[in-house]
Specification:
Number of helices: 9
Number of domains: 2
Strand order of the largest sheet: 2-1-3-4-5
Oligomer: single chain
CATH class of the largest domain: Alpha Beta
Helix content: 25-40%
CATH architecture of the largest domain: 3-Layer(aba) Sandwich
């Protein structure tokens, strides 16, 4: 039977989670603060820890760091009522398996616990990050925050969809600022503004004399963004002919 430890200064949250986890077949211990959980780790270890962020005494992020420094095999799920993007980014960046904004669905919480017990991903430790420029409390924004938190520490190519003016570049900048590439260039390029004849030159650059009118060497946007992030805005409006780069 898997052992789950829960740390939260809210008694109601502790009771609800304890009951739900026990009903799902888990052996559960609850703690009102991170310090008592850390003390218990000296003599026992759980299979998974669920912790709040803001509690009296040791902060939830400090507990997360302690776990990742000393018990890396134990997955940690962060839960918090402070549902901003930085909370999500710091949680994932600190090595949390998942971030759950309060209030959360108990069935979804049990699903997350089961996934966490299947195997903890390797993540990097905490690092300093700039403050977030994105705010929002709606459930749809929480999904955006969680996606940014998960993707920021990867090198994956990200497709950001949305109507014009909905903040796609802001999302791209947030991904960049909270990634390991935050001190490297962020290059934004509006593909809809580039004539189809110049797309290849704009992206990849050209040497002097490569074609008529190429009087100087030009560094392409891919090279300009080397080591950083290249944001291709309005790529869906790029001329079809320009997308056929040879």
């Amino acid at each position: 039977m898997h052992k789950i430890w829960v740390a939260d200064d809210d008694e109601a949250i502790r009771m609800v989670l304890e009951e739900s986890l026990k009903s799902a077949g888990f052996l559960t211990s609850i703690f009102s603060n991170a310090d008592s959980l850390i003390e218990q780790l000296k003599t026992d270890q759980p299979d998974l820890i669920i912790t709040d962020i803001k509690m009296p005494g040791t902060h939830g992020y400090d507990l997360l760091k302690h776990i990742n420094d000393n018990f890396v095999q134990i997955p940690v799920i962060i839960m918090t009522a402070f549902t901003d993007m930085q909370a999500a980014v710091d949680s994932y960046g600190g090595g949390a398996f998942e971030y759950m904004p309060k209030p959360f669905d108990l069935d979804e919480a049990i699903e997350i616990v089961n996934r966490a017990l299947e195997g903890k991903p390797i993540t990097k430790g905490l690092k300093a990050k700039p403050s977030s420029e994105i705010i929002g409390k709606a459930s749809s924004m929480q999904l955006v925050f969680r996606a940014i938190g998960k993707l920021a520490n990867t090198n994956a190519t990200v497709l950001i969809q949305g109507q014009s003016g909905t903040g796609k570049e802001l999302i791209a900048k947030s991904l960049h600022k909270n990634s390991p590439r935050y001190d490297m260039p962020f290059v934004a390029l509006n593909m809809a503004d580039i004539p189809k004849e110049l797309v290849e030159s704009e992206l990849f650059g050209h040497e002097k004399g490569a074609f008529t009118g190429a009087v100087d060497r030009r560094i392409g946007r891919f090279e300009q963004a080397n080591g950083g992030t290249l944001f291709l805005d309005e790529i869906g409006d790029m001329p079809a002919e320009g997308s056929k780069i040879t």
